[in-house]
TrEMBL record, chain A:
Keywords of the record: Amino-acid transport, Cell membrane, Membrane, Transmembrane, Transmembrane helix, Transport
GO molecular function, one term: transmembrane transporter activity
InterPro entries (alphabetical): AA_ABC_transptr_permease_3TM (IPR010065), ArtM/GltK/GlnP/TcyL/YhdX-like (IPR043429), MetI-like (IPR000515), MetI-like_sf (IPR035906)
Similarity-based family: Belongs to the binding-protein-dependent transport system permease family. HisMQ subfamily.
Principal subcellular localization: membrane
Membrane topology: Multi-pass membrane protein
Compartments, as annotated in UniProt: Cell inner membrane; Cell membrane
Stretches that traverse the bilayer: 25-43, 87-112, 133-154, 184-203, 223-244, 264-283, 365-386
Gene3D superfamilies named among the record's database cross-references: MetI-like
NCBIfam families per UniProt: HEQRo_perm_3TM
UniProt-recorded name of the protein: General L-amino acid ABC transporter membrane protein
From TrEMBL, chain B:
GO CC terms: ATP-binding cassette (ABC) transporter complex
Protein name per the record: General L-amino acid ABC transporter membrane protein
Domain (ABC transmembrane type-1): residue spans on this chain: 176-365
Annotated InterPro entries: AA_ABC_transptr_permease_3TM, ArtM/GltK/GlnP/TcyL/YhdX-like, MetI-like, MetI-like_sf
Keywords: Cell membrane, Membrane, Transmembrane, Transmembrane helix, Transport
Membrane topology qualifier: Multi-pass membrane protein
Main localisation: membrane
UniProt similarity note: Belongs to the binding-protein-dependent transport system permease family. HisMQ subfamily.
Transmembrane annotation, as ranges: 41-64, 115-133, 145-165, 171-199, 211-236, 248-267, 301-329, 349-368
Organism: Rhizobium loti (Mesorhizobium loti)
Coiled-coil boundaries: none
Top-level lineage group: Bacteria
Length: 395, 385
């Protein structure tokens, strides 16, 4: 009995200072105290500085008249619009360049990434040179290169370069015919939506039938016929309402058509080229990450090389590719803030102008941060959803 | 009785035959790598067409038609533009780079004081090269000199104002000097800070963990420009009246904090890859938290993530070019600023200057990535699965 008593006794834990729990609480308390003191000190300074500079805090300034022009705007905007609207215009411009850039970068990136794994020596080397060049120079430099090195030294509007389909290229940008939708063109959009819906339905039914009976159905051709055919039919039925407004050359400038400004063009081209190099590396790593046994096993089952790639390799490679691809998309979106260097009015540029005009530094930076964080979170959410869909269903 | 043995063992080997002519040599290589199939042949032809279209133009522009020396813009402009070149001429204007080389390297640093950055550069190379070559002994001393003594010496030499050296404002700094000093300090600060943040993020203390997560995710979610904006317009508001920060220092803080958040995520990846047994083994040996991290976990974790760390370094090196937005002139900024020099304004100036800057950036980044591959191979102990 006595020996059990001894055993049950708490072993000596040494000093109370060495207890990890006590230490943890102590350090956290210390951090909290320091943080609160720091924040209080900063807040105190900010308030003192703002009163000294006679700047009223708060977001009321967003309703004030902006008084500056924005060269490119997706929505109606004039210098009489409010600061809030100016920031909205900037936000929309950021979204536009990010979406177009992401699509282009993905296409170039996949082509180059697959090219780097090609059997063909020459293609492999060309793709390697592309990746190694663009990965190792700053994106801002690429933007400047397109802007002042290429687009700024194009001919003046008088001697515009003629491109196919009635488009022109000169130092004021890229001009292409603008589509003018006449009466009844809504029918085309409805037809397109219906076509996409039906194609999706057919694909689903075909998959279910193949799972149940093993019979295949030419999904691709049916879908193509539905998506292209229905709108064409609607186009003919509604009496060909679509016309084009072609850019015309006059003495000093081009009139009509749709103008893409050099600022947008250089930002878009630079972001696409730059990000594509990173996407190419991700794609290459993804495909190489699928073990060789998978390809060989698929071959042993009698699949053709094309089917092996489509049914076995790509689905598995996508699982490796998607997470880093997401961060590249986010990088592209964040890099679009480099627009400020060449004067494309994106979120950072317009918010920066607002910030300079009103002196509302704290609010301006907070707005920028919140919007960029929101875009990042949204993109992550969408890609996480896609990732979960693609992920291996483990038993 | 001796049994007759029919078995026979060859005692001398037949000489190896040369491989069939069809699988060796240049023609076989071409057949395998360039024209393996019809599709392959089409690709090769397309590739050759592409190279034939682009490469001669690049060589012509960069070397054959290029102007290497000259006093002003006339050597790089056509007759119609008021120069000496024939109409229709295009070629690189290396004369521009040549004339502005000093500015591209150190910015507007006073000419009579330029020996100071050059001396720092010599010290830097003299310390960095032995650090990078694995065979050179005394790495510890070398590291102390490079990461502790050199920054102090460089600060005294570059800023001046003591030991009889005249003071040089940081607003006069520029070019490669700014690029390199920003990225050197950024690297030296962001790695330890990133490690601390990564440890904090994996810590069991809820408050510390939350703080680290919030910091890392916020910084990673916003562009560097916003951080630089923050550093340039908000920091002055945060400080009491009269106290002000040097602009260069503000950019340094912005870049370092930004890189630290990315570094933290890279290091965290390494920490997560270390099997639990390693942590438990260290615990069972009675090591404390910091001992465990220093002796057991970090050496393995950091080795695993060398490529990620170097990628972050490369990213930061490239990102230093953004300081142009808050009107500081790094290499790219000073090149861009010189486009507007009326003495050199020609159609070729911008292109030549930018390609020169691109080449310098490329050289550093490519060098870093190759060195990281070399280190990775050297440290590979064969334990990788």
């Amino acid at each position: 009995m006595a020996s059990q008593e001894v055993l049950r006794e708490e072993p000596s834990r040494g000093s109370f200072i060495n207890d990890p729990k006590v230490r943890g609480i102590f350090f956290q308390a210390l951090v909290v105290v320091l943080l609160v003191a720091g924040v209080w000190w900063i807040a105190h300074n900010v308030i003192a500085n703002l009163t000294r500079l006679h700047i009223a805090s708060g977001f009321g300034f967003l309703k004030g008249r902006a008084g500056f022009d924005i060269s490119e705007s997706a929505i109606a905007y004039s210098s009489d619009s409010t600061y809030g609207r100016a920031i909205l215009v900037g936000f929309l411009n950021t979204v536009i360049v990010a979406i177009v850039g992401i699509i282009t970068a993905t296409i170039i990136g996949f082509i180059v990434g697959i090219g780097r794994l090609s059997q063909n020596w020459l293609i492999r080397k060309i793709c390697t040179v592309y990746v190694e060049v663009f990965r190792n120079i700053p994106p801002l430099l690429v933007i400047f290169f397109w802007y002042s090195g290429v687009l700024a030294v194009l001919p003046a509007p008088r001697d515009s370069i003629n491109l196919p389909f009635g488009s022109f290229l000169n130092q004021r940008g890229f001009y292409f015919p603008r589509a003018v939708w006449g009466d009844g063109s809504w029918l085309i959009f409805v037809a397109l939506l219906v076509g996409i819906g039906m194609a999706w339905f057919v694909a689903r039914k075909a998959r279910q039938r193949q799972m149940a009976t093993g019979q295949q159905f030419p999904v691709l051709w049916t879908a193509l016929a539905l998506i292209v055919g229905l709108p064409l039919l609607a186009y003919a039925l509604s009496g060909f309402p679509l016309t084009f407004d072609y850019p015309k050359q006059s003495t000093f400038n081009l009139t009509g058509g749709f103008q893409v400004r050099p600022e947008f063009l250089s930002l878009y081209l630079a972001l696409s080229c730059y990000t594509a190099a990173f996407i190419a590396e991700i794609v290459r790593a993804g495909i190489r990450g699928v073990s060789k046994g998978q390809t060989e096993a698929a071959g042993a089952l009698g699949l053709r090389p094309g089917s092996i790639l489509r049914l076995v390799v790509v689905p598995q490679a996508m699982r490796i590719v998607i997470p880093p691809l997401t961060s590249q998309y986010l990088n592209l979106t964040k890099n679009s803030s480099l627009a400020i260097a060449i004067g494309y009015p994106d979120l950072t540029a317009t918010a920066g102008t607002v910030l300079n005009q009103t002196g509302q530094a704290v609010e301006g930076v907070v707005i920028m941060m919140v919007i960029y964080l929101a875009i990042s979170l949204l993109t992550s959410l969408v890609m996480n959803w896609f990732n979960a869909k693609m992920a291996l269903v483990e038993r | 009785m001796q049994e007759h043995d029919m078995s026979w063992v060859r005692t001398e080997m037949v000489l190896a035959q040369p491989a069939p002519a069809g699988v060796t040599g240049f023609s076989a290589w071409v057949r395998k790598n360039l024209i393996a199939s019809a599709g392959d042949t089409i690709l090769t032809i397309a590739g050759i067409a592409l190279v034939a279209l682009i490469l001669p133009q690049i060589i012509n522009w960069a070397f054959i038609n290029a102007v290497w020396t000259g006093p002003d813009r006339t050597v790089c402009a056509t007759v119609a533009q008021g120069g000496v070149q024939p109409d229709g001429w295009t070629g690189a204007c290396w004369a521009f780079v040549n004339a502005k080389f000093g500015q591209f390297m150190v910015g507007r640093y006073p000419i009579e004081e330029r020996w100071r950055p050059i001396l720092v550069a010599i010290f830097f190379v003299a310390l960095l090269v032995p650090m990078l070559i694995p065979k050179v002994p005394r790495k510890g001393l070398n590291a102390i000199l490079l990461f502790f003594v050199l920054p102090i010496v460089a600060f005294i030499l570059l800023v001046g104002g003591m030991f009889g050296l005249p003071h040089v404002e940081t607003s006069l700094w520029g070019g490669l000097l700014v690029t390199l000093s920003l990225s050197f300090v950024g690297i030296a600060v962001s790695l330890p800070l990133g490690i601390v943040l990564a440890l904090g993020r994996r810590s069991k203390m809820p408050i510390i963990k939350t703080l680290c997560v919030v910091f890392i995710e916020t910084v990673r979610g916003i562009p560097l420009i916003t951080v630089l904006f923050f550093a340039s317009v908000m920091l002055p508001l945060f400080l009491p009246e009269g106290v002000s920060f040097d602009k260069f220092l503000r950019a340094l803080i912005g870049v370092s904090l930004f890189a630290a958040a990315y570094m933290a995520e890279v290091v965290r990846g390494g920490l997560q890859a270390i099997p639990k047994g390693q942590y438990e083994g260290a615990d069972s040996l009675g090591l404390g938290y910091w001992q465990k991290m220093y002796f057991i976990v970090m050496p393995q974790a950091l080795k695993l993530v060398i490529p990620g760390i170097v990628n972050t370094f490369i990213g930061m090196f490239k990102d230093t070019s953004l300081v142009i937005i808050i009107s500081m002139f790094d290499l790219l900024g000073i090149v861009k600023q010189n486009f507007s020099d009326p003495n050199w304004a020609t159609a070729q100036t911008a292109r030549s200057g930018l390609i020169f800057a691109a080449f310098v950036f490329w050289l550093f980044c490519f060098g870093m990535s190759r060195y990281s591959m070399f280190t990775e191979r050297r440290l590979d102990t064969g334990h990788k699965r």
